[in-house]
Design brief:
It is a single chain. The chain is α/β, with parallel strands linked by helices. The protein has one domain: Aminopeptidase, CATH 3.40.630.10. It contains 14 helices and eight strands. Strands 1-2-4-3-5-8-6-7 form an eight-stranded mixed β-sheet, sandwiched between helices. The chain starts with 9 loop residues before the first helix and ends in a 6-residue tail after the last helix. The N terminus is likely disordered. The structure holds zinc ion. Zinc ion binds next to loops.
């Protein structure tokens, strides 16, 4: 979602129609990013153990792909893992490929994992914006910021430009033309969520980003309003079991609206779509890896656009790739066991009150 505050000037310097043409030419010349090849190698290695699907194509003709593993039955809970919505935030893609590789290799021998996958479905779309990944841009090759592209308008004032703008595709945080259909990448992501997650009684989504602040954050909706979402009690219960079982974790868990509001957030849009089925619970989360830590430890990164959004030193990248696996594993287990912690009745009311005090009260804490 973010990656935002750190990149105001660059697109303006090279903005405009000429820049868009240049980006489209590069996208045509280089067919696909290296990470897409890595994904396909994993698909090949896994054989029948992974279900691989082409779920759409970018305007430049690059395939948009998902892989899935676990019980496909519609009444089983699911977790969707998404990455690379902002092409520049490559580390999100790499973290998901690392987790997927670990799953694929464990499937060959790990009985506990095989049992777990009888109770949960995992769906991965690690390269939502392959064109942006190729070009090293936040936006897709048409200059649209996919995380500002959904048909949702903020109810309160948003920060200028950063909150989403319709002035020009040559400026950052462009939402796309008013009334235009969503971009191919956004549409494909929404189709995957609707088909694979929203149809189930319980699902979680995790969208991996980087670039905002100095600590790792887990955000939940809303981004378009400071109003709490309907499933606040469930989110609080999820945070509680995570914090109780991972006492040394380093995430700040909070609604995105505590940091800034934005138009067009895809997860606000999809969460609202999920409310059409009141019997189902869909909790979308965003991992925002705090890249300023990497910059602080290696200030030379400030002089590279990639460096503001990604760890450049190998051992640091390895540490980042390891760190989030425990969080991914937790989500997988939490989904598989949702019947044991989702609050009902009076407990749900207590969780809701505790969540209001924690995140929305006058002196709310993190
Ligand atoms: Zn982002």
């Amino acid at each position: 979602m973010a990656g935002a505050l750190a990149q105001p000037r660059q697109p303006a310097r090279r903005g405009g129609a000429a820049d868009l043409t240049r980006r489209r030419t590069i996208a045509r010349a280089r067919p696909r990013p290296q990470e897409l090849d890595e994904l396909r190698e994993l698909v090949q290695e896994a054989g029948a153990r992974l279900e691989h699907r082409i779920v759409g194509h970018t305007d430049g003709g690059v395939a948009l792909e998902t892989v899935a593993v676990g019980n496909p039955s519609a009444d089983v809970p699911a977790v969707g893992f998404f990455g690379g919505v902002h092409g520049l935030e490559r580390i999100g893609v790499r973290v998901l490929l690392t987790y997927l590789r670990s799953l694929v290799r464990r499937l060959a021998w790990d009985t506990v994992l095989q049992r777990q996958l009888e109770h949960v479905r995992l769906v991965f779309m690690p390269l939502v914006n392959p064109g942006g990944l190729l070009l090293g841009t936040r936006a897709n090759p048409s200059g649209v910021d996919l995380m500002r592209n959904a048909p949702v308008d903020a109810l309160d004032a948003v920060p200028w430009l950063l909150g989403g703008q319709r002035i020009s595709a040559g400026l950052p945080w462009y939402r796309g033309a008013a009334g235009a259909p969503m971009q191919a990448e956004s549409r494909a992501l929404c189709d995957v969520v609707e088909r694979e997650l929203l149809a189930r009684p319980f699902s979680l989504a995790l969208d991996c980003h980087s670039g905002f602040g100095a600590v790792d954050r887990i955000w939940f909706p809303y981004a378009h309003t400071r109003r709490p979402i309907g499933h606040l009690a469930e989110l609080h219960a999820l945070s509680s079991i995570f914090e109780a079982s991972h006492v040394h974790h380093r995430y700040v868990i909070e609604p995105q609206s505590r940091q800034y509001l934005a138009h067009g957030d895809l997860w606000d849009h999809l969460y609202q779509r999920s409310l059409d089925r009141p019997e189902a619970t869909f909790l979308p989360l965003t991992l925002e890896m705090g890249s300023w830590i990497w910059v602080k430890k290696n200030p030379r990164q400030l002089f590279s656009r990639q460096g503001i959004f990604n760890p450049l030193i190998e051992h640091r990248e390895h540490r980042v790739l390891r760190r989030h696996i425990a969080w991914f594993e937790f989500l997988t287990r939490a989904a598989a066991s949702c019947g044991r912690w989702l609050p009902q009745g009076e407990r749900r009311e207590r969780e809701h009150e505790a969540a209001l005090a924690r995140w929305y009260g006058p002196r709310s804490r993190r």
